[in-house]
Amino acid sequence: MLPLLLLLATAPGADGLTSIDYVPTLANETLEGRITTSTFVLEQPRCVFTDAQPGTHIWLVVALDAAAERFDAGTMPETPRLAFQTFPSNTAYATLGTSIANYPCPPRPGDFTVLRVGSETACRSDPNRPSCNGPLPGPGPYRVKFVAWDNVTAQAQTHWSEPITLKTALQADNLPVTAGGHSTGMIILTAILSILFAVLLACLVALLASWCSNSYGSSSIFSKPDAVTVRRYNTHHVYDQPAARL
């Protein structure tokens, strides 16, 4: 009975590809940054492509939910039709291609077994990197699947994931407003300015205290000068003159 189930799980589909009974899933909910405004994190397809040949590469295909069923696995990755730079004008894009050897089964102790989709920014406008894992252009929703390609054609593929919707950043005008009528952003800005003013005031007080201390210390080193006594001398030779006695 078990061999029959395995055969059904990897039976060839209508397009000739081996269809693997696996649905890509998001990483555990406890993972920080599991879904952001431009990325999401998937579990790696460990122990999924068990019949893949050593030269096979596993790629992640990303599509908008509405266009997922139009994906053609006969298109090779790293070509304009599956390029990130033209997404979502094209149906889908292929990224994160890696050798099947990088998905060992079972995972080795300490292995990092998740994939962050949308984490590269430097290549998002580079046509020479069609497989760029660039930031996703909007909230979606998106669907993903893993496809095994050899050097000639696709060999196997998983099912599509459930729709994945990214977070949406709040605009400044849409920030929550408190009961007093002030937005959260305004309250935060006021608090920051108050802290900066307090720090500046403390610096000014410290500077003034230091200046006063230096001024007092400098004046204390001067002592009152001794009184200068000038003695009066009479020149004796003047009184020796007869005319001076008159």
Number of DSSP strand runs: 7
Classify the secondary structure makeup into a structural class: alpha+beta
Rounded to the nearest angstrom, the distance between the terminal CA atoms is: 157 Å
Mean pLDDT, as a whole number? 81
Strand order of the largest sheet: 1-7-6-3-4
Strand content: 15-25%
Rg, please?
Answer: 41 Å
Contiguous low-pLDDT stretches (5 residues minimum) are 1-11
Tags for this model:
two-stranded antiparallel sheet, 21% helix, 4 helices, 246 residues, disordered N terminus, 7 strands, elongated, alpha+beta
What this model shows, in words?
With 246 residues, this protein is α+β, with helices and mostly antiparallel strands. It has helices spanning 2-9, 184-219, 236-239, 242-245; strands spanning 18-19, 40-43, 57-64, 92-99, 114-117, 142-149, 154-157. The strands form two sheets. A five-stranded mixed β-sheet has the order 1-7-6-3-4, with no helix packed on it. It has a two-stranded antiparallel ribbon with strand order 2-5. Strand 6 (142-149) and strand 7 (154-157) form a beta hairpin.
